[in-house]
Amino acid sequence: MEKLKVAILGATGAVGQRFIQLLKNHPWFQVAEVVASNRSAGQPYGEVVNWVLDGDAPEKVKHLTVKPLDAQLDSLLVFSALPKEAAEVREMTLAAAGHVVCTNASTNRMIEDIPLLLPEANADHIRLIDIQREKRGWSTGAIVANSNCTAMPVVMALAPLRRFNIKRILVVSAQAVSGAGYPGVPSLDIIDNIIPYVSGDEQKLETETLRMLGNLNGNQIEWLPAVTSASCNRVSVVDGHLVNVSVDLDAGPALDEIIDAWTSFRAPEPVLQLPTAPQPSLHYLPQVDRPQSRRDRNAGNGMATSIGRLRECPLLGYKFVALSHNTIRGAAGCSILNAELLAHQGYLANFQPAADDKLSV
């Protein structure tokens, strides 16, 4: 099978690099175009990128010439790691020109006809693309967003609990420094410190969570009818966002029933068979002091969510801890999984992926 050529917007940044790293051995997609700022345009990628991840950039990508942000692209599928301001106009322009944009940027997440997609939890929201294309007059173009990196473990942990009728959610985060990009938080601010503020994330957590856990009804998403409150903190950890969640479940299940809901949870077809989908999606850890960022962030090649410390909460009924890798599952990895679902469901023009391909690592 010939691989589908893809473009990376914001390719020299930390999330752009993560896209390139994760796509290195992808069975369906091949990085063919890299896009960055004008100061990098026209030069080989390997000469302008300050590679901040483990290892090195793939040799094939190193030799690609960086294109400017306004360049005409040949790739049908575009992965966006652009900052919010740059993404606002460019993503819409590319979609209108017939490209399918899978974006990690926050700009377009809450627009009604753009899916905010976390495939294990809301794969059916993909049908918003049909509404999007009809409404905007796009034949092959589309925009699909993934969530804020801290909302991801919250939604993954709560998705199996929807059967118990979620009423109230309280979240307190401990977010890794890589969530701030590179170079991120100054060392003299974060070493020996916790910063009780992450710009914009509390509002995103309180809204994106309810939208992703909602139901597609006709041509719109009916948000989960629950109340949320979030407090976000930056901590001295490189990767892995940890969230402490308290939740009010109207059905009043026993603790064993909640654990069973997590351990028996399986992604819907065809998500389970997609190349980067973790199996299983959720790991429940019985140890009293888990999950931990350093030990558990790479579960499922960084795509799984780890949960632990389920216990009774005197205020809301139940409380637990959830953890995910913020730049893999919470960013580039989720966009790639979204694109795989688009390919399987026929939203990438005539591209037909091979069956039963799993990502080699």
Q: What's the gist of this structure?
A:
Helix content is 27%, strand content 21%. The chain is of the alpha/beta class. It has 2 domains: 4-147 and 331-344, Rossmann fold, CATH 3.40.50; 151-325, 2-Layer Sandwich (Dihydrodipicolinate Reductase, domain 2).
What is the count of distinct domains?
Answer: 2
Strand fraction equals: 15-25%
- Described by its quaternary structure, the protein is single chain
Largest beta-sheet characterization: 6 strands, mixed
The CATH top-level class label of the largest domain: Alpha Beta
Q: Write down the overall geometry.
A: globular
Catalogue the unreliable spans. Answer: none
CATH architecture of the largest domain: 2-Layer Sandwich
Q: Percent helix among the residues?
A: 25-40%
Structure characteristics:
13 strands, six-stranded mixed β-sheet, Dihydrodipicolinate Reductase, domain 2, 361 residues, Rossmann fold, alpha/beta, 2 domains, five-stranded parallel β-sheet, 12 helices
